[in-house]
Protein: Phage holin family protein
Organism: Gordonibacter massiliensis
Amino acid sequence: MKFIIRWLVTAIAFGVAVWIVPGIDIVGGTEAWAAIALYGLILSLINISVKPLMQLLSLPITVITLGIFYLVVNTLMLYVAAWLANGIFQVGIDIATFGSAFVASIVISIVSGLMNALVGNKD
């Protein structure tokens, strides 16, 4: 049940990012909501599996930059999820620039934090 809540929160946060951030576009032949749900699933799985390792490996530079590099790790996870979604399912997102992915990672972090506070998900 906890994973389903995480998936829904991530999908909603990503949907808000697609809606707000220019340069993040849905690609593929499916409906937009299906692409957002699929991308949210892939991003949730990456956040559970790969992201902790990336955070551990980037810990020295994160400490030096006072935590700002954590946003770069989030941005890289967006790129990995986009690569997997586009490669495996031919559905996902198109990221125009690193700047738009960086802003999208900030939006996703803020919306996810707010949604987790509303649903009581303590991760």
